Amino acid sequence: MRTWLAVLLAAVGLCATAAAAHAQGDVYVVRPGENVSQLAARWGTSVEAIARANGLANPNLVLVGQRLIVPSGDGGALAAASTVPPPALPHRDLALPAPFASVRLSPQQPRQGQTVKIEVDLVEPARLTGRFQTETLRFAGDGQGGQWALVAIGPLAVLGQQTVYLTATTASGGTTLLRLPLIVRDGHYPVEDFYLDAETSRLLAPELIEGEAQRLEAIFKTGESLPLWMGPFIAPADGPITANFGERRRYNGGDARYHEGIDYDLATGTPVRAAAHGIVALAEPLTVRGNTVFIDHGMGVYSGYFHMSELLVSPGEAVKPGQVIGRVGSTGLSTGPHLHWEIRLHGINVSPWEWAEGGFP
Ligand SMILES: [Zn+2]
Asked: 305: CA distance to ligand 1 center in Å?
């Protein structure tokens, strides 16, 4: 009972002005498992009175966190009060606590390997931070008062409902936490077996893979905060695709990994192009990936180009889409000349197809 009262009092305190403008009723925040019939019984009023006071088209549909005006019991006064125009605020999704005005996740039910875009509108200026599992989200302004961020759903992401956490901090220092449900669906990636000769297998040694992964992690932790790219990425080369993103791979019958990008079958020496505007974050020979370039596109987005015979850019260099950054080769863990191209978001591999086809934001 004490908890319930605390919630009610907090809600009344925060919304005193809005409630007064409405109907001299108190404001209640809907909690899990509650419906309008229960609330009507508890408050000694009717479902119809609650629906009228809150302009509910369907009183059976209320959401956890939604704010409801508690009718004062005077049905006639409430009916009249409900015709009073609401206070002049930007459009506000009733299920959201201030300062969140609206939040959109697209898609809301991503498949493994997809990139999710979060768009947030606020009723007052606030600094946004966010988290999804191990990812720290980076927000940028959309130029129209809203903010957006991206979330990587890895190819091996756990299926089912997960939660994105957003925190808004207003100028007064008040913080509001918002939990957004996200449903991860199966990417239905095929599984393939690969058998490598002894010398190539040597390159799969855990210490080599780990060392290289740590080298890359260090790069993905830094980088530009704001987006450097605009619109869709371009493909780094034109050529037949021999391995697709996300395919599960079992090397010599061992644990399944997945293919982290797209492989293009190309002759040695074919030019490799930058996919979008960015800054070269890494250009060096690596044991497994061979001659490698990673370009930082800002906001935690990187594109990677592996196995090249030649590197034509240096770290710190700004590149333009289409600029030749290297040449196709077969260096590192490779069985023939090809280009491996991948996109990382917060260090996690996501499908490059989405970035090349539709693009973000
Ligand atoms: Zn590859």
From this structure: 9
Average pLDDT score over residue span 211-230: 92
Nearest Cα to Cα of residue 283 among 272, 271, 291: 291
Q: Rounded to the nearest 10 degrees, what angle do helices 47-54 and 36-43 cross at?
A: 110
Instruction: Compute the distance from residue 265 Cα to the ligand 1 centre, in Å.
Output: 10
What single DSSP character describes residue 20?
H
Ligand 1 midpoint to CA 20 (Å):
62
Domain containing residue 169: 100-184
Band the pLDDT of 205: cuts 50, 70, 90: confident
Predicted TM-score (pTM) of this structure: 0.72
Q: How far is the CA of 259 from the centre of ligand 1 (A)?
A: 6
Can you tell me the distance from the alpha carbon of 6 to that of 70, in angstroms, rounded to the nearest whole number?
16
Cα(245) to ligand 1 centroid in Å equals 8
| 128 and 53 belong to one structural domain | no
Handedness of CA 111, 113, 119, 125 (dihedral sign): positive
Report the CATH number at residue 74: 3.10.350.10
Average pLDDT over residues 275-303: 97
38 Cα to the center of ligand 1, angstroms = 57
pLDDT value, residue 32: 59
- Is residue 50 scored above 50 in pLDDT? yes
The dihedral built from the CA positions of residue 158, 163, 165 and 166, taken in this order, carries a sign that is: positive
Q: Tell how far the Cα of 290 is from the centroid of ligand 1, in angstroms.
A: 11
End-to-end CA distance of the chain: 46
> Taking the CA of residue 250 as centre, how many other CA atoms within 13 Å lie in the half-sphere pointing to its CB?
10
CA of 316 to the centre of ligand 1 (A): 25
Residues 236 and 111 in one domain: no
13 pLDDT higher than 50: no
